[in-house]
Design brief:
Shape: globular
Helix content: 25-40%
Number of strands: 25
Oligomer: single chain
Number of domains: 2
Radius of gyration: 23 Å
CATH architecture of the largest domain: 4-Layer Sandwich
CATH superfamily of the largest domain: Metallo-dependent phosphatases
Number of helices: 16
CATH topology of the largest domain: Purple Acid Phosphatase, chain A, domain 2
Largest sheet: 7 strands, mixed
Strand content: 15-25%
Distance between the termini: 53 Å
């Protein structure tokens, strides 16, 4: 390792010498790996060994390790730090089976310097984050969460850290999305504060201690990262995650790498182990950034896989391989499940999952289904569908949940679902048994119209039996209107099993959209 961690106390007592002119810092970073321990396909799901051998796969921790080691070797003698902007957890059978053990082992093997807490680190409550924070060999930080009242997290998550790199002190501050209580499962003992206020306070503390080079390692999403870069004085760069945004100087439609907000460079490296980012910062005597360059590096088949990690991953995959390889269905075309689509408009994967849920409980009298777009984590390619692919799409071990709700509550739920489309929020509602129109020109809270349920205009006073997943039914993704729903049953079969059974019953399944959600663009 090229860095040495200083304790928080030491960071405030070390006497800094004069900063060297033209100090250059290389920041190697990833974000939102989401348990993609094995290589991924072009659809971001787990790639088959045959396709990987044919050179058709990307990423996986063995390629991440190779690329980071390669950069360390190329930059030998330079100032290098390796950062993770959060969400190692959740997204494949490796997490479902081992509950973080594999992610911890691989992060330690690769050798990170600092990690930001991601919202999915709370998917198994405070205990899940505690397992990670106590298991890795480097600090896990987040400045806008107070964990001191959590009997399992107290003392495990620092606000910020200072790294000594080439004789200079580099402050790393961090913030986590404040809606994590809606998107994951932190306990009530975890107290969130505003990201900008928290980061401003941490930057001020480090500045007062004489630290002149400060990086924000955030898990808040690109929109908030841009706002933070503009609002928080003293931050020299923002390395982000959460929104799975691609920054690249070569790929069409991506954000420029870096994107400058005033004098502050902002970067992110997509997700799922597909890219490693490399940001190079040059500082003057006063700690100001005078140059920011770099790009993301695509981890395609040209990047060799670390052989030792490949062997270890194969060993770990043994217990889950049989289940992963179970063929459950066949599709005639790709089932689109990308976050860019399923969090903005009707998508084929949303229709598949919502249809499957409604079909499962239609004989109970259920008339409509809602599936949060954020619960859909990948597409499925055409041809044979394995249980592993279904679990990659639906990795959260959610269960089917039925409940009663009024038409008024349903409208409120749809308004919640479309209220943050611009941010790519996971609350976007994919539906079955419902049709509605979204007006993007209207303000959040008044965007939904023409709501039909079971083929008739919704009656706000009427009570309807609906189905969703237990996460949404319990208020996840802002669906608080369902929390106290009468006659709720949250312990139906696992959602992945529901979808696998539905696909199997269809014969070759043809994905589709049918206009159940109409989107009117803002004028």
């Amino acid at each position: 390792m090229l860095t040495k961690l200083l304790s928080t106390t030491a960071a405030f007592t070390v006497i800094a010498g004069s900063a060297a002119a033209d100090y250059t810092l290389h920041i190697v970073h990833i974000n939102d790996l989401h348990s993609r321990i094995e290589p991924i396909s072009k659809y971001d799901g787990t790639c088959s060994s045959e396709d990987n051998a044919a050179g058709e796969c990307f990423g996986g921790v063995a390629r991440v390790s190779t690329m980071i080691d390669q950069l360390r070797e190329e930059l030998a003698g330079e100032n290098v730090i390796v950062l993770d902007a959060g969400d190692q957890y959740q997204g494949s059978l490796m997490y479902t089976t081992y509950k973080g053990d594999v992610e911890i082992e691989m992060m330690n093997e690769i050798g990170f310097d600092v990690m930001a807490v991601g919202n999915h680190e709370f998917d198994d409550g405070d205990e899940g984050l505690a397992k990670l924070a106590s298991g890795v060999d480097f600090p896990v930080i987040s400045g806008n969460i107070d964990v001191s009242q959590s009997n399992v997290l107290a003392g495990l998550v620092d606000n910020h850290v200072v790294l000594e790199v080439g004789g200079e002190r580099i402050g790393i501050v961090s913030a986590l999305a404040v809606d994590t209580a809606e998107t994951a499962s932190p306990s009530d003992a975890v107290i969130f504060t505003d990201e900008i206020e928290s980061l401003s306070a941490d930057v001020a503390a480090l500045t007062d201690a004489g630290v002149t080079k400060i990086i924000a390692l955030n898990h808040v999403g690109v929109t908030h990262d841009m706002a933070i870069a503009e609002a928080v004085e003293g931050i020299d760069a923002v390395v982000g995650g959460h929104s799975h945004t691609l920054f690249s100087n070569t790929e069409e439609g991506a954000y420029a790498y870096p994107t400058m907000v005033g004098d502050v460079p902002v970067v992110q490296a997509y997700a799922y182990s597909k890219y490693v980012g490399h940001l190079t910062l040059t500082f003057d005597d006063d700690g100001n950034v005078t140059e920011a360059t770099g790009d993301t590096i695509l981890l395609d088949a040209s990047v060799a896989e670390d052989e030792a990690i490949v062997a270890r991953v194969a060993e770990l995959a043994g217990p889950v391989e049989e289940m992963k390889n179970e063929i459950v269905a066949e599709t005639t075309a790709v089932v689109e499940g990308s976050r860019e689509v399923c969090r903005a408009v009707e998508c084929a994967m949303g229709n598949l999952v919502a249809d499957a849920m409604l079909d499962r409980v239609a004989d109970q009298g259920a008339v409509a289904a809602i599936q949060n777009g954020g619960g859909l984590r990948a597409s499925i390619d055409d041809g044979e569908v394995t249980m592993g692919e279904v679990l990659t799409v639906l990795p959260f071990q959610n269960t089917l949940a039925t409940f009663e709700t009024t038409g008024a509550n349903l409208i409120a739920a749809l308004e919640n679902g479309v209220g943050q489309i611009e941010e790519g929020a996971g609350r976007f509602p994919q539906v079955a048994g419902i049709t509605f129109t979204i007006d993007l020109g209207a303000e959040p809270g008044s965007r939904v119209s023409e709501v039909m349920i079971a083929g008739a205009p919704v009656d706000e006073a009427e009570t309807y039996l609906m189905v969703t997943n237990n996460y949404v039914r319990n208020g996840g993704d802002g669906y608080s209107m369902f929390e106290d729903a009468p006659n709720a049953y949250d312990f139906g079969p696992g959602l992945e099993r529901v979808v696998a059974d539905y696909l199997s019953a269809q014969g070759p399944y043809t994905p589709y959209t049918d206009g159940r959600i109409t989107v009117k663009a803002a004028e």
